[in-house]
Fold this sequence. Notes:
The chain has 1370 residues and is an alpha/beta fold. It is 56% helix and 9% strand.
Amino acid sequence: GINAEYGADDAQRALNEALPALDAALKSLKSLNKNDVVEVRALQRPPNGVRMVIEAVCIMKSIKAKKVPHPDKAGVKIDDYWEPGKAILQDPTKFLEGLFKFDKDNISDDVIKKIQPYIDSEDFTPQAIQRVSKACTSICQWVRAMHKYHFVSKSVAPKRARLKEAQTTLDKTMQILNDAKERLQEVEDRVATLQAKYDECLNKKEELENKTDLCQARLGRAGRLIGGLADEKIRWEETIDTLTKRICNVVGDLMLSAGCIAYLGIFSGEYRQSLMDQWELFLTKRGVPMTPKVTLVSTLGDPVKIREWNIFGLPRDNLSTENGVIVQYSQRWPLFIDPQGQANKWVKIMERDNGVDVIKLTNRDFLRSLENAVRFGKPCLLENVGEELDPALEPILLQQTFKQQGGIVIKLGDTIIPYHPDFKLYITTKLPNPHYTPEVSTKVTIVNFTLSPSGLEDQLLGIVVAEERPDLEEAKNQLIISNAKMKQEIKEIEDKILHRLSASEGSPVDDISLIDTLEISKVKAEEIKAKVLVAEQTEKDIDETRSRYLPVAVRTQILFFCVVDLAMVDPMYQYSLEWYIKIFLAGIANAETSDDLSERISNINEYFTFSLYVNVCRSVFEKDKLLFSFLLCVRILMNEKAINMDDWRFLIAGGMQPDDQIVNPGDGWLSERSWVELQALSVLPCMQGITKTFKDHLAGFRAYFDSPEPHRALLPGNWENDLTLFQKLLFLKCVRPDKFTNGMQDFIAKNLGEQFIEPQTADLSHVYKDSSPTTPLIFVLSVGTDPAADLYAFAEEMKFSKKLTAISLGQGQGPRAEAMMRSAMERGRWVFFQNCHLAPSWMSSLEQLVENIDPDKVHRDFRLWLTSMPTPKFPVSILQNGSKMTVEPPRGVKANLLRNYQQFSEDFLGSCTGRDDEFKSLLLALMMFNAVTCERRKFGSLGFNIAYDFTAGDTAICVSQLNMFLQEYAPQIPLKVLHYTAGDINYGGRVTDDWDRRCINTILNGFYNADVLKEGHAFSESGTYCQLPTDSTYKDYLKYIKQLPLNDSPEIFGLHENANMTYAQNETFAILEKILLMQAKTGSAGGKSQEEVMEETAKAILAKVPQPFNIADLMARHPVLYEESMNTVLQQEVILYNNLINMIHSSLNDLLKALKGLVVMSDALETMSIAVFNNTVPDMWANKAYPSLKPLGSWVADLLQRLEFINLWNMEGIPVVFWISGFFFPQAFITGALQNYARQTSISIDTIGFDYKVIPVTQELKVKPPAGCYISGFFVEGARWCHDTHVLTESRPKELFTDMPIIQLIPAADRVAPTTGIYVCPVYKTLTRAGTLSTTGHSTNFVMPLELPSDKPQEHWIKRAVALICALDY
């Protein structure tokens, strides 16, 4: 039983031995997939091992071999299993399934026999097959397992049979047992082998797991690396693309930038852009690659550097930024054209930490300071240079350095000094439009810092946005800083990545540091991307906000240039941009707030406009305040396109008369001047047809003309509704120029508000409040004013009366004043420098003293007070930065009397011992005379030919003499002495014109005479101004003066009522003339450019002005004859006219060529072109022509008339009546007439004079008089000729000039002039009457005296200033 049991166990063990091999084979098969099988099938030339495995499989599956020829033996066929094997591999799944389901229990012996050689082959082991194929290894294992299983399975059946036999036959069984033990030993040995293999596999598994972990980690890092580089790839591709384009475009971009740095610094922003556009077009046409719309700032500008400059005070506009870049890259030292001092301020702050030396050419030791700067490498700022630079600067400007003993040196003067590489030189000039020679221009880079409207607008926009929205400004600044920081960081990271990539050894996947750096770069790039989006949004917000505040910037910019242009009217009207911005900031801060932005903008504009008006009015003379407010109003309306530029040009310059003249329909009431201007006005589109419809509405226009307030009267017809307010002003100027200023006031009140025409008084306390120890306080004086008393009173009020020291400047007072000022600065006192205009040579020293006041060291109580008459010598920098206030005497007789009497007292009136009554009466008469002579000046040439500046000193000496002579000559009244001292010495000493001396003495006769001692004596016809009783007290006199009328009537001056009209007209023309002065040199007139207007005007004049006279032909017709002096007069006149005609033709042709760019536009031609545009006579013509006040259009018409007169004389012989206005030199003609008579009668010309006869207008003259000549062409001013009574008589209301009939000059020898019944009337060429004083004692404007019949005493017409005028001003 034991044996049988043993046999059963043995059989089971045999099976158990075969099964693991089978399981291993099946497990190996399971690890296969389709691809492994497909891989085997796909082999074209399978290795031997593979072929063996496929053959074995085919044998096991009983698949027949394919007979194929033997490769070596011909005719012999061998079995080939490869093709059939491939067929069974066709379906890998089915094939594998077939192996799993193989009937392993019924393998035939034939198959085993066939497979045995494979099993026995050493090449058919898993180890051998593994070398060629993974799939075949598993199949090989399967075949071997099947073979093994066959035998094991086969051996189990006999053992069972023997088991039964073993139960009976023990020996047999024992023998079998022994055999089994042997086999067991074999199996144990094999198990040990397998255990060793198992351990080896475990180690291998562990190694593979480690490799798997490493691979996983590498995969992760590779993912990070690929992810990081992918993001960088996009950014780097963009960068490469950008850099490629930039490298491609760098030639064009840098060429343009280099050109900009080298040539464009001197130009304004608009010109720079224009030239850049031209250059870009030029280079594009020639195929030079460049960035579209490239700019200097985009090519060379560094945003961080630019922001730094802005912090240092560089304005934020594009022009200033360009200037900064030009200075940064230019190889020559910069010379800034810097009238507003912006560059100066920027350089000082920028170089402050580097110890900048600020010097001037006027400094005595400027070369030493420069030498130190060069030696120690400090920046040096050379300020306020003129148009020429000191030759000593040349080596510095040309940077003429050389090596000596191993170091770089430069020769400055006679000294060779070390040249430090850090040395920088900046030069600034305050000249607004300097002309630098090519020699200077090539040594420096001229940089134009002059404010342009667009540049200032940009700056002001930045200021208003920064003030109103500081959050946006802060955000913008933060973004600039963070963007710059981020860019720096990303650059460092990129450099690090590139370094790691280039320095990396082995696989980059294993470089953890590189991967980490890449990830940081990626994060930074994302951050920057986000910040760029925020920046773009902020930029959009800022731009949107900026655009909404644009109306504020535009308004402020317009007003600034109004203020700057005032300097053309008076040199003392100077205002700095810094001062202006201070008022602007105050305006923003103080303007009424509002949540509605448009309302807020309106509030700022309104508040600032008025605030500026008040501040400027304080420092502007009364006569210019209306001009300033009108200018503000007009410029604002121009910006709103509410004023047509053609209309504006007509207002200030007049117009050209149309060729088809219409007869004046208002003859008798409408002056010829008004009609001429109306015809010129009708050329404007808005006024077309006004002269033609004038006749239809004659009554309406007459009512308008006669209205006491024509500026408020309605125009007839449709004109009232068709015209704008401004266009109505044009009509008013033509018809009633005397009321134009009233019209201006209404126009300003309607557009800006009533407050802009209300008087603004200057208060010392306000001015003081705006001042500081570094800003001087300046009194701008007018004649006869002295603010000293006011200042002393204010000092008393401020408790500074004992701390105020004063000095009147003049020769030799400079050093004393300087010492006084230095002491006051330390001790906190006030200094008062009077009459700066009397020390022009010391003004540069004063300017230096003021500029060198250190705000940190000066005593806070120190103040510098200055007084000066208007003078161009006064330092502009002091005016711009100082606190100014104008001082004017009260206007009018009443104010003049009051001012003088306030200096007197009761004691003074009683100071003329024993003669108080006469003294009081004559003192009042003298004060009346002083008031009348001083106030007559306002009437222009009707007052005096020359405006004399009578001073308080003249009055004081006359008062003193009156007191003295009354006492000396007692009891007589020395009227003759008083008359002589006042009329010929004190007042008369200032009078240089003979006719003015006659006038002042006549006026004095009315006040210094015996009648004035009578109580109630009237100084004027109305009796308003009269003598007071002798017992009147000082208070009575003051009371009397205070009740006098505020506005003077012309009668007190002895003038006609029309004089007020003349005064008002003169005021109008003076304002318009000043506005014309202030016009920009460039611009447009309506739809036409300035150049087009000039060209049209020039061509029109050229077409009208004839060619010169043929002198030879004329001399043949009118030879020089002894008995006919008029031929000589004609020849001389023709020569002068020819010179003028030649000048007109040549200059106009040159101008037309210059406008086309065919010749250079010289200074002379440019000045002429501006005159042509402004409808004024060019200086180069006026210098060759006769005196004339006419505008260009009327001047040309007048010239043609004159030429016609000369031509008729030339062609038809000596005229019957000479048109005296047509002569260049009427005096030569007068002499010719005398000479003819002298030669006819053989009487000495020295003894011959003229009798004068006025020819009635009804008398027709057809032949020349037997002696003398007839002359015409005179106009009477101040009176008129009465055709009925044939004497001078009073003018009609509103009739300023009338035609004088023809006058016959009758030569007479030893003539005695009549003393009564006539008025000796001066004849002048033009209405100004004043001219240059000639050796004869007469003005060059004076022609001759004429005696005109009069039924009034001569004094009446002398006070009326009646004169004959050859040519009017229209």
